[in-house]
Amino acid sequence: MMRSARTQCFYAFPLLMCLLTVNAQTDRPTIDILVPLPIKGSHPIGESLRMSILVAQDIINEQQLLLPGYTVKSEFFDDQCSGNYAVRKVLETMAGQDKFVGVGGMGCNDVCAQVSVVASSMRVPSLAYDCNADYLTDAVQYQNFYRLGTVTSYAKVILAQLAKQFAWTEVKLVYHESFLSQGDAQYTSFFDQHGIQFSVTPFSGDFADAVSIFEYMNSNKYRVVYFIGDEQTFRKLVCAAITTNTKKGITWISEGVHSEAWWTVNDADLRSEHPECTANTIAEHMQGAINIKGMGAPVPYDEKAMNTELTCFKGYTPKTFSDLVQKHMQEGYPLGEAGTEVERPFTSVLNYGADGTCALVLAVRHMLFTKGKTIDDVRRLDESNYEEIQKYIKDSLSFDGSSGPVSFTGNDNPGTLGVYQLMGQEDVLVGTVGWNDAKNLDVDQNLMDIYNGGVRNESWTEADEDPPPPAAYFPWDAVKVLSRVIPIGCPCFLAYLNSIPGFENFVARSVGKQTV
Fold first, then answer.
1. d(Cα 247, Cα 353) in Å, to the nearest integer?
2. Which of 146, 358, 400, 442 could crosslink 312 through cysteines, CB 3.0-4.6 Å?
3. pLDDT for 67-124, tens place per residue?
4. Distance CA 423, CA 442 (A)
5. CB atoms within 10 A of CB 339
6. Mind listing the pLDDT tens digit for each residue in 437-477?
């Protein structure tokens, strides 16, 4: 049946509007952000950050409230979690073109450290969407650098408090070099100061080294491991505990973000060499494990914070925005696009992608609409304009983000530190430490807000006692034999002697008597 012209127009109108919208976005000048992210490798938080960034810039571009007439566009590349590689790639990408208004992304400490220096020398604003190392707080060495990842320096305080509370005899600090590139001095000096017995082992990831760690721990009956590194290395360390027949109930404490329920993943390469290290076995050995990390979101029990409208995403709250990103994680981007799902989401960092995009967009908005600069001025910042945008980010930028309130104190964004404990197959939030409290490193003052009963020690166990030493040797078997032989043998032997001729006279002479 032929449709009427009015009906055909009715169906064609939405398609026409869609095409006009697409063309309008295509024709707009772009706000280009260069975004290095760790996509592959052992710490692939980049996939989660990228999904958050894509959702965020779509909302900004569609709503046209922050940068009317412009289209935000992020250009991604895999920085391989390598500072040297990331710097080389940034220089290659930016050579001969000046379209980028800033460098965002960055989720590995070494990348943040090196790229921030290069970006500052090029007068390009840089904002890390994660990176939580203490040393990056140094605003003298890392000038004009800002980051969203929550600094975990207070984790040392929590460890010290737990060590005193549960009377741990020694803590074994194991760290992957790439996660603690500035060395272990900050930990060792702190533990020394507070009288905590500890030993330190840098761990390259070699399985033989992991075995040596647990042979040492088992021989000395130490039961507490503090780990800093990626989940692949962590899994290998737990596997070493299994293969050395370490008693279940080790107290595992880790610092930093890992993917959701990473302990439930079967590592095919690891299992090919150590088939006993199944996901179930690893989960059994990790019961009661504590993870200390930046939450990357408001405390879920704070209804007011979870329902605050976001500055850059009108109509969204931290909860509804996070739900939208999680939906894309599961169903792909755009929704339903096969092969774009995120298999291993890092929930603790995904909001930083959106808030990092928002921060850079607000900085550009300030330059364009408050200071009246042109887009070319922003793309090619002279010294004066560079100082202006840095001043705005450092002193004036403040907004409600999906990770919580965002503003910068020095290089850092105030954030909440979360303490989680593995119970069954769930990481349960048992405590939080706010930004202001986390600056206090007084071990004797417990500033952690408690949730769900706090840290529990039911699954932690002590090392088995040594078997008692053997009793002093006494030849009881000989006594048993003699006790049987003497009563029978002695009379028989005497009877035999008496039967010998002259024996009686021999005896008499021996006692001084003479027989008649």
1. 41
2. 358
3. 999 999 999 999 999 999 999 999 999 998 899 999 999 999 899 999 999 999 999 9
4. 29
5. 5
6. 777 778 888 889 999 999 999 999 998 887 677 666 666 67
Of 308, 328, 327, 305, which Cα lies nearest the Cα of 317?
308
Q: DSSP character for 192?
A: H
Asked whether the beta carbons of 399 and 356 are under 8 A apart, the reply is no
Average pLDDT over residues 296-300: 92
Give φ, ψ of 305 to 5 degrees.
-65, -40
The overall pTM is greater than 0.90 = no
Q: What span, in angstroms and rounded, lies between the C-alpha atoms of 41 and 238?
A: 20
The number of residues making up the chain comes to 516
pLDDT of amino acid 207: 95
What is the C-alpha separation between 459 and 249, in angstroms, rounded?
6
Query: In Å, how far from its chain's centre is CA 337?
Result: 29
- Measured in degrees and rounded to the nearest 5, phi and psi for residue 500 equal -85, 130
Task: Assign 3-class secondary structure to 127-150.
Answer: EECCCCCHHHHCCCCCCCEEECCC
**H-helix or E-strand spanning residue 87:** helix 83-94
Q: Which domains does the chain carry?
A: 28-150+303-406 (3.40.50.2300), 155-294+417-450 (3.40.50.2300), 476-510 (no CATH)
Query: What per-residue confidence (pLDDT) applies to 436?
Result: 79
